[in-house]
Automatic annotation (TrEMBL), chain A:
Stated name of the protein: Multiple sugar transport system permease protein
GO BP, sorted A to Z: transmembrane transport
Top-level taxon of the source organism: Bacteria
Bias kind Low complexity: ranges: 18-30
Region ranges (Disordered): 1-30
Entry similarity comment: Belongs to the binding-protein-dependent transport system permease family.
InterPro entries xrefs: MetI-like, MetI-like_sf
Main localisation: membrane
Automatic annotation (TrEMBL), chain B:
TM spans (from-to): 12-34, 71-95, 107-128, 140-159, 238-262
Origin species: Streptomyces capillispiralis
Residue ranges occupied by any ABC transmembrane type-1 domain in the UniProt entry: 72-262
GO terms classed as biological process: transmembrane transport
Tagged with keyword DNA repair: no
Membrane topology designation: Multi-pass membrane protein
Record-linked Pfam families: BPD_transp_1
CDD domains for this protein: TM_PBP2
UniProt xrefs under InterPro entries: MetI-like, MetI-like_sf
Protein name, entry field: Multiple sugar transport system permease protein
């Protein structure tokens, strides 16, 4: 509707006749091409967006009402059968309990990241070294992390050896029971992702003007008060972004448990289960229904979060 | 005064503890990678130092039997194509959205925004069918297309930078007779260099470390990227921790080198990527 030619002309409609050059209608060719220009830039991005994001969502919703196995040309509509199966077969829903471990872990992670970001934004010796050490795990390959920690929790591995130094009992199968295995895996997840939260918080804290601290210092505010009244409000947007990332992250855990335990001893997460349903047991229909449920939960969480903490930074346009 | 000293001591103590927690698991794996199978068998424990700190036999085994050379090659191909494509796609999208007023513009923006809320792992079952129907399954093209097509973060980064480029520069170029493509190529792209650096870092690290997509879409052994090749170690090398450790260190080492050289840019890249 508003191509650039018309947009330029719009503010001066009554004066238009006065400017004979501008009043002359633009030739049809260039005008059409102008209108097309933005679309030429958007063809490839939109094609990719539709093909790899929207088409899968649409297909997934369609599959979720069928009994399709993912390969055969035949499929029949089963109505809401897959959803009832999901809700009634409790073992399919139990995987969400596993997410609870990761949810608790992300609370620990955010608190630790906040603490280290606050401490390291003030003058501390070897600041850059500590920053690097805390952030580096985030950059490491997930499979390598999986192997490092498989050895860490191994019988007679790193953890047992360290505990042995303190004379503690060194015979503990860390990945042997569901509780201990999930706690260990969630701990690995904190180890891995702490650095990202830390760097985000650090960036937000550094963007708070320094005079605020000076003024607070003069007023005799303690470090805690500075944190409470200057830092915490200053980083609220990043904090709420981190919360939402951790909720959706906790629901979609895959790599670490898949690499380390393959989902054994009660460590199967929702995504591991979905991947197994779809690609090992050929239950594409059921897997799709599961994925739709996960997607709805994530969207609901995002929506709730946006309602509670309205984010002033979403003005993309 | 003493309270301050105590607080400082506690702060340093916590930092030292965190350093230990981060570095110890990695250091032990490094130690293990230098041990011989005999040393592993004699049960001296994970913390024991290797007899010969220059024993690189395990690295040779890992590199050769893990087909690490081809894995690094495949990773490099995917990395370059995906990062290059992301830069092109992201900057074009941002340019079109920020510099033009056209019908359905709001709808397009909303479509990209909404896509950012959909976690990629949730739609993988259906994405798989689409990739398969294009005949891209089990080829290097599958991850390249997926990395390019799903990246919203880079669009945000480019959009933010394009907004800071004054429109008067475009207009000046237009007056000199440049068309939209020339403006994009000659004016916008060169000025986007800092944004491109950010995207290269953030995207590059994600692609280098990703496991999920190559694992699902490229099951062939000769299409292994470093994640999947390393993952395959678990089978044949079962309990040979000295070889597995060497493989893990081989994969971590390039990241460490890049990190040490580009530290500052990497921090900035991630801060920019997240704060939109």
């Amino acid at each position: 509707m508003a191509d650039t030619t018309r947009e330029a002309a719009r503010p001066v409609p009554p004066a238009a006749p006065a400017g004979p050059k501008r009043a002359a209608p633009a030739p049809r060719g260039p005008r059409l091409s102008r209108r097309l220009t933005p679309w030429l830039f958007l063809v490839a991005p939109l094609a990719l967006l539709l093909t790899f994001t929207y088409a899968p969502i649409a297909n997934m919703i369609a599959y979720s009402f069928t009994d399709w196995d993912g390969v055969s040309p035949e499929l029949s509509y089963t109505g809401t059968g897959n959803y009832t199966e999901l809700l009634t077969r409790s073992e399919l829903f139990e995987v969400f309990l596993v997410s609870g471990y990761y949810l608790v872990a992300s609370v620990v992670q955010i608190v630790l990241a906040l603490y280290f970001a606050t401490v390291l934004s003030f003058d501390v010796r070897f600041r850059h070294f500590f920053k690097g050490v805390l952030f580096f795990p985030y950059l490491i390959n997930g499979v390598a992390i999986g192997f490092v920690f498989l050895y860490f929790f191994q019988d007679g591995g790193t953890l047992d050896s360290v505990l042995g130094l303190f004379g503690a009992d060194t015979d503990h199968a860390w990945l042997g029971t569901p509780f201990s295995a999930n706690t260990s895996l969630a701990g690995v997840s904190v180890w891995r992702y702490l650095g990202l939260n830390f760097v985000l918080f650090l960036g937000a804290i550094q963007s708070i003007p320094g005079e605020l601290y000076e003024a607070a210092e003069i007023d005799g505010a303690s470090r805690w008060h500075q944190f409470r009244h200057i830092i915490a409000p200053g980083i609220k947007p990043v904090l709420s972004l981190s919360v939402i990332l951790s909720v959706s992250g906790s629901l979609s855990v895959f790599e670490i448990p898949y690499i380390m335990t393959g989902g054994a001893t009660g460590t199967e997460t929702f995504v591991i289960q979905t991947v197994k349903l779809a690609f090992q047991f050929n239950k594409t229909g059921l897997a799709s229904a599961a994925a739709v449920v996960l997607l709805l939960i994530v969207l609901a969480v995002t929506w709730v979060q946006r309602r509670i903490v309205p984010d002033e930074k979403v003005d993309l346009v | 005064m003493t309270r301050r000293t105590l607080a400082r001591t506690l702060v340093y103590l916590s930092l030292a503890l965190a350093t230990l927690v981060v570095l110890l698991p990695l250091a032990v794996v490094l130690l293990t990678s230098l041990k011989s199978p005999q040393e592993m068998a004699d049960g001296s424990g994970a913390l024991a130092l290797p007899d010969d700190p220059l024993n690189l036999d395990n690295y040779v085994t890992a590199f050769r039997d893990g087909e690490m050379l081809s894995a690094f090659g495949n990773t490099a191909v995917v990395l370059i194509a995906a990062v290059g494509g992301t830069i092109l796609i992201g900057s074009m999208t941002a340019y079109a959205i920020d510099r033009f007023h056209f019908r359905f513009r709001k709808l397009v923006v909303a479509a990209f925004l909404l896509a950012a809320l959909v976690p990629g792992v949730t739609t993988q079952v259906a994405t798989f069918q689409i990739v398969n129907s294009f005949g891209l399954f089990d080829s290097l093209w599958a991850p390249i297309a997926l990395y390019m097509g799903t990246d919203i973060v880079s669009i945000y980064i480019f959009l933010q930078f394009i907004r800071s480029i004054p429109v008067s520069l475009d207009e000046a170029a237009r007056l000199d007779g440049a068309n939209a493509f020339t403006v994009y190529r000659k004016v916008i792209l060169p000025l986007l260099k800092p944004a491109i650096a950010t995207v290269v870092i953030v995207k590059g690290i994600n692609v280098y470390n990703d496991f999920y997509i190559p694992f699902l879409y490229m099951p062939s052994e000769d299409l292994g990227v470093i994640s999947t090749s390393l993952f395959r170690f678990k089978g044949p090398f079962g309990a040979h921790w000295e070889t597995i450790s060497a493989g893990a260190i081989l994969v971590i080492l390039p990241t460490l080198v890049v990190f040490l050289f580009l530290q500052r840019f990497i921090y900035n890249g991630f801060m920019r990527g997240a704060t939109k």
